[in-house]
Amino acid sequence: MSTISRILSGKDGVGKSTVTALVGEQLALMGKKVLLIEFENGLRCLDLFVGAMATKVYDLDDVLNGRCEFSDAIAVSSISENLSVIFATSARRQLDTDQFSTLVLALSDSYDHIIIDTDCSDESIDCLSGIAMNSIVISTSDPSGTRDARYVCDRLYSRNVPGVKVLFNRVRKDYIADKITPNLDYAMDTVGVPLAGVVPELPDIVRCTSRGIAPKSNSMTQKIFKSIASRLDGESVPLTVI
Ligand SMILES: Nc1ncnc2c1ncn2[C@@H]1O[C@H](COP(=O)(O)OP(=O)(O)OP(=O)(O)O)[C@@H](O)[C@H]1O
Ligand SMILES: [Mg+2]
To answer: Which one of 32, 116, 142, 183 has the fewest CB atoms closer than 10 angstroms to its CB?
Structure first.
């Protein structure tokens, strides 16, 4: 049975897909069998982020609508043969949430980890609430980001969802030092859930995802995402906080 994790956020564009890709890569490089699913309609990027672009014709919409077997839509990343991905459809179509949760459960015997990059609509939240063991809310650490993250966490708690954590992304130490944004303790208090990780704003992250490559061994990017991935895998390792 897989550890099923979902990555979601209050605001768009805060780094859900980036975190999904980089955590998935580190788990795969640790020897775990990992499947990433981009549960979106209309927009895709995980294929690019993990170096699997144009390797499959079929996408999630094709699987859910029976146009192919799920194996036909599972692409393997060039980063690791342990890392697979099902692409989001590039068509703007409503995906069937019941069929989606059935698919995730059907695949869960074949992977150590399934990580789902998803929006925060009620339908998406509901369909994964019974099956996701971890729900990681990605947020920036500024007040409007943390307020939206708190709102999503409240919606998860109202559904008795386990394993809700926040990951602060694109954090700028200089902004905190200059008191442009509040410090991380304040940000954590606002969101009110345990910390899954802190990721700084790093050009290296954009370099890796733009090229579909893994961070260099022992780079700051690799250390940060390895510690987040290890904790998701149940290891007790300290968070690499900036
Ligand atoms: N820690 C980071 N440092 C620098 N750039 C980052 C970082 N995290 C994400 N980005 C950049 O921010 C942009 C948005 O990231 P991403 O696509 O992962 O967000 P998203 O939450 O998945 O967006 P959407 O809501 O559209 O799905 C991308 O250009 C990405 O390269
Ligand atoms: Mg995304």
So the answer is: 183
* Domain annotation covers residue 53: yes
- 81, with CB counted inside 10 A (0-12, 13-18, 19+), is exposed
Residue 15 Cβ < 6 Å to ligand 1: yes
Domain that residue 17 falls in: 3-232
Please give the biggest Cα pair distance in the chain: 54
Ligand 1 atom at minimal distance to the Cα of residue 9: 21
- Identify whether 240 is part of a domain: no
198: helix, coil or strand? strand
Q: Considering the domain boundaries, does residue 180 fall inside one? A: yes
In a domain, 239, yes or no: no
Tokens 């991905």 found at: 85
**9 C-beta closer than 6 A to ligand 1:** yes
Q: Which of 18, 40, 43, 202 maximizes ligand 1 atoms within 8 Å of its Cβ, making it the mutation to test the pocket? A: 18
Q: What are 80-121's pLDDT values in tens digits? A: 999 999 999 877 677 888 899 999 999 999 999 999 999 999
CATH code (residue 143): 3.40.50.300
Give the number of other CB atoms < 10 A from CB of residue 29.
20
Full-prediction pTM beyond 0.90?
yes
218 alpha carbon – ligand 2 mean position (Å): 26
Which residues, other chains included, contact 225 with Cβ-Cβ below 8 Å and sequence gap of 6+? 22, 23, 25, 26, 199, 215
Q: Is 20 in the pocket of ligand 1 (CB under 6 A)?
A: no
Does an H or E element contain 9, and which? strand 3-9
Question: Roughly how many angstroms between the first and final C-alpha of the chain, as a whole number?
Answer: 34
